[in-house]
Amino acid sequence: DGVIGILGLAPYFFETQAYLYGGENNFWGASFELERDLLLTQKLITQPYIEADVIFSDDSNYAKKTGLSSATAGFETRYEISKKIMPYIDIAYEYSKGNDETSWQIESNSEKGWLYGAGVRFRF
Fold first, then answer.
1. What are phi and psi of 66, to 5 degrees?
2. Mean pLDDT of the chain
3. What Å distances lie between residue 34 and 10, 26, 47, 64, CA to CA?
4. How far is 123 from 114, CA to CA, in rounded Å?
5. For residue range 52-70, what is the model confidence (pLDDT) as tens digits?
6. In 3D, which of 64, 75, 67 has the Cα closest to residue 115?
7. Closest Cα to residue 69, out of 37, 90, 34, 94?
8. How far apart are CA 111 and CA 102, in angstroms?
9. What is the pLDDT of residues 71-86, one digit of tens each?
């Protein structure tokens, strides 16, 4: 199994992550993440993001369907009480493609829907 990727800051301050995966059972896939901090005030920050996973091939017993495997688009809004304590809320829309039929599993359908979350981020 192996992974190769890039991580960095794209033009206009977009934080970017892109990875290419390869492994046993002829698995080939890629994942992409893109996010950007937008300051509403000095302490109130919203962060829109997009995440996507693509499967090129998968011959394992628990194979995912090829193509766009999952995609999530949303935004997280946080308030920085200090640089170490940041409560946040997160709202996103997610699409997930189902599994392929193999001798170990039955085929499943795609799922999509809204995701909501809230929490507190602690930075040490």
1. -75, 160
2. 91
3. 9, 27, 10, 23
4. 27
5. 999 998 888 777 778 898 9
6. 75
7. 94
8. 19
9. 999 999 999 999 999 9
Instruction: State how far the alpha carbon of 96 is from the alpha carbons of 8, 20, 52, 67, 115, in Å.
Output: 26, 19, 10, 11, 12
104 three-state secondary structure: coil
Q: What pLDDT, on the 0 to 100 scale, is given for residue 29?
A: 95
**Can you give the pTM of this predicted structure?**
0.83
What are the C-alpha distances in Å from 110 to residues 11, 28, 31, 56, 114? 34, 20, 18, 17, 14
Helix, strand, or coil (residue 107): coil
Residue 70 burial (CB count, 10 A): 18
